[in-house]
Amino acid sequence: MQPLKGIKILLVDDEPNILQFLELGLQNEGFEVKCAPDGITAINMIKNFQPHVAILDVMMPGMDGFEVCRMLKKTETIAVIMLTAKDEVDDRVKGLTLGADDYMVKPFSFDELLARIHARIRNQFPNLFGEVVIGPFRIDDRRKEISLESRVLELSPTEYELLKFLVLNHGLVLSKAMILEKVWSYDFGGEENIVEVYIRSLRDKLNDKDRQIIRTLRGSGYRVDLS
After folding, report:
1. Which of 35, 157, 170, 224 is most buried, judged by most C-beta within 10 A?
2. How far is CA 61 from CA 26, 34, 58, in A?
3. CATH code of the domain occupying 130-224
């Protein structure tokens, strides 16, 4: 994974051993890290620190991780990864409903957490990378260019945003409704069929006649496969 400079991560957990372990590990990866032992301290630190990613423990005294997540997502542009000691579906649903971007169950692998942090930054702060290389694609958000195997694709602004969204979320099934929300935004008043039109155009430009890159999953949406 690419080293990232200037990325700020806020760790919020009432277990000192976990805070120390994650702080050292993430600092060694080049992140700027601050720790909070509880939710209220975390909220008070946000304005001055302005982290890109918050890693929140769910079960904390006073203000729990759910409430911290709700408050952060209400006022900040931030990626939230929630940690829990139990794999409860209701907890995951509650966290995601409040705006959490990802969810991990303790105990977890540090390498997996690192991969999820990178994924969240790629999705929510792609400009921090300058260029992102994923499989055969190179995304240059500053130049608004996407290359496939060193060939710069001729894309309209909407095609660029759509292909970037698909590639950054490769391996995931993306529904038409989700694509409309993320690429065209909430105020789009047209039909979902517009997605099909743009997907067809992208396939032509990718020379993806056999639909091996952008796959259609009937009734579910689309998925980019890079393997």
Report:
1. 224
2. 25, 19, 10
3. 1.10.10.10
Give the pLDDT band (50/70/90) at residue 129: low
User: What is the H or E stretch that residue 165 is in?
Assistant: helix 157-168
In three-state secondary structure terms, 137 is strand
Q: Determine contact, residues 120/81, Cβ cutoff 8 Å.
A: yes
Q: Are 31 and 25 in contact (CB under 8 A)?
A: no
Kindly state the helix (H) or strand (E) to which residue 30 belongs, with its residue range: none
What is the rounded distance in angstroms from the CA atom of residue 103 to the CA atom of residue 207?
36
pLDDT of 55 strictly over 90: yes
**Mean of pLDDT values over 128-147:** 84
* Tokens describing residue 200: 């067809």
- List where CATH 3.40.50.2300 sits in the chain: 8-127
Please tell me whether the overall predicted TM-score, pTM, comes out greater than 0.90 for this model. Answer: no
CATH for the stretch 8-127: 3.40.50.2300
Q: Which residue in 62, 61, 59 sits closest to 94, CA to CA?
A: 59
| Residue 5 pLDDT > 70 | no
Predicted confidence band at 121 (pLDDT cuts at 50, 70, 90)? Answer: confident
Q: For the chain, where are the alpha helices, taking DSSP H only?
A: 16-28, 39-49, 65-75, 89-97, 110-124, 157-168, 176-179, 193-206
**DSSP one-letter code for 128:** G
Measured between alpha carbons, how far is 132 from 35 in angstroms, rounded to an integer? 28
> Cα 89 to the chain's mean position, in Å?
20
Q: For residues 162 and 197, is the Cβ–Cβ distance under 8 A?
A: no
pLDDT at 189: 59
Phi, psi of 68 (to 5 degrees): -60, -45
